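Inverse folding, one chain.
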């Protein structure tokens, strides 16, 4: 992935988190949710 692509992906994750409307970003949204679940699981240890 190019740096441009990485920046676009990061922006996409933020955009999806705020709007919850863009289907194209749905995969990124799921990854973010999974990361949050992992953080919560580690916190519960």
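Residues assigned per position:
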């Amino acid at each position: 992935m190019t740096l441009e692509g990485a920046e676009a992906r990061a922006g996409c994750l933020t955009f999806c988190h705020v709007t919850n409307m863009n289907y194209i970003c749905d995969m990124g949204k799921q990854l973010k949710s999974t990361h949050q679940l992992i953080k919560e699981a580690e916190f519960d240890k």
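The mean pLDDT is 58. DSSP finds two helices and no strands in the chain.
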